[in-house]
Amino acid sequence: MAVLTFLCACSEVEDARICAYRGGRQAAVSLTFDDGLLDHYTMVAPHLDSLGLKATFWVIGKSIEEGEYNYARRLTWEMCREMSDRGHEISNHSWSHPHLTELSEEELREEVTRNDDAIERATGKRPITFCYPFNAQNELVARVCHEGRVGTRDYQEPQGQANTHSTPETLRAWLDKVIAEGEWGVTMTHGIHSGWDQWDDEQVLWDFFKDLASRQDEVWIDTFAAVAAYRQEREHCTLRVRRYRKCIGIKPTCDLDPALFREPLTAEVTVDGRSRLLEFDPFGKEQFFEL
After folding, report:
1. Which secondary-structure segment (H or E) carries 287?
2. In angstroms, rounded to a whole number, what is the distance separating the alpha carbons of residues 58 and 178?
3. Quick one: 230 exposed, middle or buried, by C-beta within 10 A (0-12, 13-18, 19+)?
């Protein structure tokens, strides 16, 4: 992991740093939904869209092909395409949701690649993240599932009522903690009225979305892929910051693959006692910002 360093060309640039999260926010939250349930299209996505929020939906290709699994109706590939076109992330939860740790390497790669291919055919976008079925992994599974990706879901905050017993108070307390501690909070929700950990009162979840949306000055809300990529880029980027007569020049160096990592970064630069937030391309040439 690269150490962040900043080279300032003159004393008039007092400080420069890459912000922990986009826009200089204190924390980040990625809302993620497992198993590709029909509820995600008919209920979850419309509520998110109405608030301008984007989320990640981890889908199981085999259950989409069959239309139903464990008595729960699933998304169609056309629904996945529509959600993707609206800015949500449709990503890989394996082809058939097995215990990946029990598979051979050949079987493991088939589970991963087959679902990547199906999602890409449906949405035109190849997944760059992965969600482990049953949250199970070992060294082989982690290595294979990380290949060609910006991140995998290694931790999560479960939300639901049948099993997790979420309340307005527990959801608010979790969000407060994420913001106070400067964390990246990743939620895990399954079905609303079907699937695992259903909701008795879905209004609790919709109100949580509204609360989250109202705090966007404090917390960056985006897909799992966007936040994972930003965090990786931040750790692998160095900056050279120069003060010119009427502008600031930022020249970044990042050793990651620009074909995979495509998120802009935010820098906080202090010049003449005044701090400014500047968004820049970590793979670009020197970029100039007016004072």
Report:
1. strand 287-290
2. 23
3. buried
Q: What is the rounded radius of gyration, in angstroms, for the C-alpha atoms of the chain?
A: 21
Residues of the domain holding 100: 29-215
152 and 96: one domain? yes
Q: Is residue 222 part of a domain?
A: no
What are the tens digits of pLDDT across the range 228-284?
Answer: 999 999 999 999 999 998 899 999 999 999 999 999 999 999 988 889 999 999 999
Residue with tokens 């990246």: 184
Q: Tens of pLDDT along 105-157?
A: 999 999 999 999 999 999 999 999 999 999 999 999 999 999 999 999 999 99
Long-range residue pairs from 74-78, CB within 8 A, at least 24 positions apart, any chain? 74/35, 74/36, 74/37, 74/38, 75/36, 75/37, 75/38, 75/40, 75/41, 77/118, 77/121, 77/122, 78/122
Query: Which residue from 91, 92, 127, 34 is spatially nearest to 100, judged by alpha carbons?
Result: 92
Rounded to 5 degrees, φ, ψ at 39 are -55, -30
Same domain flag for 209 and 235: no
Query: Which residue carries 């903690």 as its tokens?
Result: 177
